[in-house]
C-alpha cells in the first residue's frame, strides 16, 4: 500500500457502521489514528516521533490489523450522494451566496471527517440553487448530521433541502429534508427539470 491515508468500515451485527482511519502528518511528524461509530465524534490517538520513511509501514500494519478485525475499504459505488441544496434569490447567485458555498463546504467537511460520515466532493450553482455534493456510507446519519451542523453554523437553514441518491444513479435522488416533500427534488435548478427525479415516497 502506497497511500498516506487509510479509511475502513465495518458493519456490526446490529447493522451499525463503525470506522477506523489513519494518516501520517508530515508537518508534525505524527502518526494519527481516528476511530468510532459512524455519526458520532471519533476518538483520536496521535503517536509523535514517526519519521516519513516509517509512514508506509505504519499504514500497512494499520490496514492489516483493520482487515483482520473485519474492516474493509468501501468503493464509491457502495456509497450514496447526499446533496445539500440551498434556494437562492437570484438565478446566478450573489457574492453572499458564494460565501455561503465556501462556508458550508468547510463546515460539512470538518463535521463529517471527525464522524466517519464521508467527504465533500464538489459544489455547483444552477438556476436559483446551490448544490453541495457529499459522498457518504450511511445516508440517514449523513442527513441528520448535515441538518445539525448547518443549523448550528447559522447557514441559512430555512433555505436548505437535502436529497439522497445511490452513487451510480443521481437521477434517482429523493428528498429527505424537509419532509414531506412538496415537489420533486431537482438538481438542475428551479428554472429546469431533472430527468427521472421525484419526490420522496
Please give the largest β-sheet. 5 strands, antiparallel
The number of E-state strands comes to 9
Which regions contain 5 or more consecutive residues with pLDDT less than 50? 191-201
The top-level CATH class of the largest domain is: Alpha Beta
Rg, Cα atoms, Å: 19 Å
Strand order in space, largest sheet:
6-7-5-8-9
Strand content: 25-35%
Tell me the number of helical segments per DSSP (H or I, 4 or more residues long): 3
Question: Into how many domains do the coordinates divide?
Answer: 2
**Helix/strand class:** alpha+beta
CATH topology of the largest domain: Alpha-Beta Plaits
Q: Provide the CATH architecture of the largest domain.
A: 2-Layer Sandwich
Amino acid at each position: 500500500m502506497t497511500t498516506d491515508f487509510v479509511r475502513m468500515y465495518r458493519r456490526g451485527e446490529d447493522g451499525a457502521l463503525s470506522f477506523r482511519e489513519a494518516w501520517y502528518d508530515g508537518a508534525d511528524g505524527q502518526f494519527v489514528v481516528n476511530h468510532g461509530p459512524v455519526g458520532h465524534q471519533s476518538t483520536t490517538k496521535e503517536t509523535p516521533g514517526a519519521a516519513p520513511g516509517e509512514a508506509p509501514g505504519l499504514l500497512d500494519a494499520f490496514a492489516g490489523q483493520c482487515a483482520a478485525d473485519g474492516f474493509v475499504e468501501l468503493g464509491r459505488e457502495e456509497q450514496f450522494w447526499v446533496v445539500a441544496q440551498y434556494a437562492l434569490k437570484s438565478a446566478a447567485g450573489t457574492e453572499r451566496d458564494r460565501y455561503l458555498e465556501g462556508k458550508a463546504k468547510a463546515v460539512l467537511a470538518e463535521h463529517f471527517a471527525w464522524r466517519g460520515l464521508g467527504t465533500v466532493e464538489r459544489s455547483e450553482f444552477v438556476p436559483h440553487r446551490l448544490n453541495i455534493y457529499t459522498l457518504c456510507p450511511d445516508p440517514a446519519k449523513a442527513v441528520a448530521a448535515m441538518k445539525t451542523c448547518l443549523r448550528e453554523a447559522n447557514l441559512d437553514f430555512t433555505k436548505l433541502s437535502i436529497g439522497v441518491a445511490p452513487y451510480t444513479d443521481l437521477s434517482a435522488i429523493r428528498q429527505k429534508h424537509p419532509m414531506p416533500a412538496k415537489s420533486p427534488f431537482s438538481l438542475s435548478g428551479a428554472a429546469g427539470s431533472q430527468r427521472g427525479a421525484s419526490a420522496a415516497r
